[in-house]
Task: structure prediction
Amino acid sequence: MNRKVVAYLLTSVLLGILFSFCNRPKEVLNRKDMEKLMYDVYIAEAMIENDYQNFDTPEKKEALISEVFRKHKTTQAQWDTSLSWYSDKIEIYLKMNDSVKARLQRRQKESEQIMNRQVQQEQSFAVRSRSPSYIPDNYSFDELNPKNGFRFQLDTTEITKKITNADFGFGFDVVGVPANSNPNLRVMLMLEYKDTVIYRSERITENRNYLLHGQKYILNDTIRGITGFVRLQDTIGIYRNIRFKNIFLDNPNDSVRKTPGNALTPKERSLTDERPRPQAVTTHI
Result:
């Protein structure tokens, strides 16, 4: 075949591909926006697959994907249309997929590094435990490099100074939780006695005030330590507008904050929350 004819055919094919790509329908996302959306959708799908406990219903799964679409100001229909359009152009689609995959791998390495640093910080904190712990009045997850929460720990001396009544509470107001969402945000209060550990836990799912109750004294036992945790798992960054306000650990005097469902009843103490510690081995010298 004549070289000129071959060159003409190749040029025609390339121009045809370029022409079809340049004439992308307006309802199809451009390549840059599509790659960003693919990245977040893949992360959301991985969260759903690996966290079945928190995404155990179709509604919860749909809510997470909808949050991703809202973040990118698009819809399920536009995502489906764009995915179908790019899939028909297999070479372009494969390049996009490789780009997104490389970005996910970089993000995974960065996450592993962050987790390693957090482990080191937690270990360092453990070494410094039994010292006065700071509890912020307000806490936000919207920093440029957002933290995943905070913790505090009080020993017997600190409890005596801070907690004046037999009943106390760890309370706060929450704002910024998107409607119809399911953030993986949990608060826990661990109350340590001589022979018992009581756990108070609350899943944060809506904007309101929260209160976890505690008691200095239970039957034949006195509290020795209080540890609190606030933890948010948010790989995509959907929930960075969530804020904790008016945080306190003290006497729950405000009646609005009192939530009867959180009260430590005798039945809860004896049947539900109390978890006996393993018996220690005592050596007499």
